Amino acid sequence: MHAIRRITEEFPKREIPPFPCPRCGAHLIARENEPQLDQSSESEFDCDNEGDPSMHQGVFTLRLVCSNADCEESVNCLGSFNTSQVEGKFGEPTYRTYLAVTFFAPTVHLFHLSSAIPEKVKGPLVDSFSTFWANPSAAGNSLRTSIEA
Predict the structure, then answer these.
(1) Quick one: CA torsion of 24, 125, 129, 115, rounded to 10 degrees?
(2) Helix (H) or strand (E) holding 122
(3) What is the dihedral of CA 140, 144, 147, 149, to 10 degrees?
(4) Is there a contact between 23 and 104 (Cβ–Cβ < 8 Å)?
(5) Type and span of the H or E element at 148
(6) Which of 19, 26, 28, 33 is 20 to 30 A distant from 108 in Cα terms?
(7) Taking the C-alpha atoms of 118, 123, 129 and 132 in order, what is their torsion angle to the nearest 10 degrees?
(8) Tell me: the pLDDT tens digits for 6-45?
(9) Could you read off the pLDDT of 99-135 as tens digits, one per residue?
(10) Is the CA virtual torsion 5, 30, 74, 105 positive or negative?
(11) SS3 59
């Protein structure tokens, strides 16, 4: 359960979780110079006028690649980011940027799916994975469909 929680919750920008490759299941790793952050215009205005780094927020893109040299599947991740003040190593205030996933293409599986699973069960299950971050209610409906099948 800890592994699923780790890939489904927001995470610090420099600590990208080991998202599983949708093709082979190995860990995905970030490409060089990733993630790319785009600050919202409202956030940029607030940061410029207020001088408060904790107002830094917007959207991100993250290009990932499978760590398995025989696979090398490419995956794109989209989401939002925000910056929060946290306590530094010596008690000083510091700022940390956190990323929250909204979408993966292709879909990242939350857990391994055996090839023995019938397609009428597997299809809705993969659908639930694809909507999990953006629309948990829709993911729940797809999961229910899979269970009923």
Answers:
(1) 0
(2) helix 119-131
(3) -130
(4) no
(5) helix 136-148
(6) 33
(7) -130
(8) 788 999 999 999 999 999 999 999 999 999 999 987 766 5
(9) 999 999 999 998 888 889 999 999 999 999 999 988 9
(10) positive
(11) strand
Q: Strand, helix or coil at 129?
A: helix
Terminal-residue alpha carbon distance, the chain: 24
Dihedral sign (CA 56, 83, 128, 125) = positive
> In whole angstroms, what is the distance from residue 111 CA to residue 103 CA?
16
AA letter at 18:
P
Take residue 124 and report the two structure tokens written for it: 């809705």
Supply the pTM of this predicted model.
0.83
Give long-range contacts, CB 8 A cutoff, 24+ apart: 133-136.
Answer: 133/8, 133/79, 133/100, 133/101, 133/102, 133/103, 133/104, 134/102, 134/103
Q: And the tokens for 65?
A: 């690649």
* Residue in the structure block whose two tokens are 């995956």: 75
